[in-house]
Amino acid sequence: PFLPPETDLTVGSVGQDHLAILNKYPVIERHLLLITRRFEDQRVPLGAADFEALAATLRTLGGLGFYNGGIDAGASQAHKHLQWVPESGGSVHLRAFTAALPPDLPPMTTTVHSGLPWRHCFVRLHGGHDPGMDGTTLLQAFGLGARAVGIRPDSNPMPPYNLLVNADWMVVLPRSRERYEDISVNALGFAGSLFVRRPQQIDTIRQIRPLQLLAEVGR
After folding, report:
1. What secondary structure letter does DSSP report for 154?
2. End-to-end C-alpha distance for the chain, whole angstroms
3. pLDDT tens-digit profile of 49-85?
4. How far apart are CA 136 and CA 59, in angstroms?
5. CA nearest 147: which of 106, 105, 108, 176?
6. β-pair partners for 66
7. Could you give the CA distance from residue 111 to residue 172 in angstroms, rounded to a whole number?
8. What angle do CA 111, 83, 205 make, to 5 degrees?
């Protein structure tokens, strides 16, 4: 569906290799996709150009970037695409988890949240007085986070994983499966938002409990 994307959904270029398009089926208002201009598989490793497109978006808009690395990580399309949504109190955000992390970690330091029952790694992106964001920094952070959870960042194809990034933190986590029971989970589940197709599935999530559900699809 991205070759070419629909004209009415296309926002514009993000560097030489990517286009920003509106998500045709958004789960959150202002939901953007950052797609490669030429076909690349979603399981191909993220590279410098991908992270530069994401960094440019985050520098301009703030918010939350994320990536579903393959079908088992919640990807619905095989064409490589990063995603962006606003990060706010009424939307998805990482603050529920990052508020418990040490606030004074130096840049490019990794850490974990002791209360989360799945494998993950948080990477501090910058200190409090250095709000810079560039693709080189994100690529380096991804390498640190991926290796910390047992993923080679240049594996081709990559094993299933999720990536989430805001101005302060990156988190990388491997996935074991796309769904548990009948609940599908993508990266936004690990930013506090689970989406269902039927009202009855809300009761299923309440019975399983959200953190246990995430643990079942993580590692």
Report:
1. T
2. 31
3. 999 999 999 999 999 999 999 999 999 999 999 999 9
4. 14
5. 108
6. 83, 164
7. 11
8. 70
Let me know: does 6 contact 24? Beta carbons within 8 Å.
yes
The CA distances from residue 43 to 69, 74, 132, 153, 171, in Å, are: 6, 12, 28, 11, 18
Are 119 and 108 in contact by the 8 Å Cβ rule? The answer is no
Give SS3 for 26.
coil
Tokens standing for 134? Answer: 């560039």
CA–CA separation, 63 vs 42, rounded Å? 22
For residue 4, is the peptide bond before it cis, meaning its omega torsion is within 30 degrees of 0?
Answer: yes
Q: Which residue has the tokens 């009948």?
A: 182
Which tens digits make up the pLDDT trace of 159-177?
Answer: 999 999 999 999 999 999 9
Q: Which helix (H) or strand (E) covers residue 23, if one does?
A: none
Are 153 and 143 within 8 A, CB to CB? Answer: yes
How buried is 47 (Cβ within 10 angstroms: 0-12 exposed, 13-18 middle, 19+ buried)?
middle
Q: Which H helix or E strand runs over 64?
A: strand 64-69
| Cα angle value 160/72/217 (rounded, 5°) | 90
The number of beta carbons lying within 10 Å of the beta carbon of residue 157 is 12
Structure tokens at 162: 């999720």
Number of residues in the chain: 219
Task: Reply yes or no: is the peptide bond before residue 5 cis, omega within 30 of 0.
Answer: no
Look up tokens 């769904």; give the residue.
Answer: 179
List of long-range contacts for 97-106, beta carbons under 8 Å, 24+ apart: 97/122, 97/171, 98/122, 98/168, 98/169, 101/169, 103/128
